[in-house]
Amino acid sequence: MNGIRTRKKAVEATDGSDRKLNGHADPRDRDGTLTGPSENIFLFYPNIIGYSRIILAIASLYYMPLHPRTCSLLYSISCLLDALDGVAARRFNQSTRFGAVLDMVTDRCTTSCLLVFLSSAFPRWALLFQGLISLDFASHYMHMYATLAMGGSEQSHKKIDQSRSRLLHLYYNNRTVLFVVCALNELFFIALYLLSFSSPILSPSLLPTEDRPGATSQPGSPSHPSSLIFATPGSAWAMELARANKMDSFWPWVIAGSSFPVMAGKQILNVIQLIKASKWLAEGDIQARRTQGLPKRK
Description:
- The chain is mostly helical.
- The chain has helices spanning about 1-15, 45-65, 70-90, 95-120, 125-150, 165-175, 175-200, 235-245, 250-290, and strands spanning about 20, 25, 40.
- It is globular.
């Protein structure tokens, strides 16, 4: 009983401004009077767009193994909505920390899932794709943590001081640069994904086999079914893969070649972001140790 009373007193003593009800903003002031309409952060327009991105990304992953056109369309729409949620946040004055984190987590997860598929499609380059995934996660996590630890909870991770890094300042503060770099970075990986279905140069399994000139040795093709369910040459799986294998590789090569420099630049930015965030955290550690009188002189 004493524990219950203690918890009740703690709740009663809580400041009204600190009350949060499952994503709902408490409109009451300290004296309990209503000061404004109640809001549900989870139902803000930008966040709803974010949920739509997640649904589209999951759908694209479902079609990814065998339906390259459908997958590319769904994945591209999900990426394009990344720009729309920012516009909605500014238009309706609904910028939130939850929305910013949701947006970044969605970006990291969708790109990582595509890179995981590319690792299986191009086994020789699996280590490179795994490195790109690790670099992407590490740089953004370090950057977010450094911003929260050193800049305070109210500072956005996109607010980069120009004296700290001119490139990162340009990348995060110029919306056009941010959109173009992110879009071309994703386009490069989408082009690689399409080439895994259309280019024998990158995917030798697409070359016709000796016994069946019209078939390929790619797993799941009519001559090499991946399961008994789709073992017949006329199955939906085999027919779709046969159409995919006839996909023209010209435009994927053009997209990959034109977007590669931007993709490479994006990875350089990730390295810079990781280094700058590490140095920022180290500066904070030095200041904290000096405050504590460390290192102590002998």
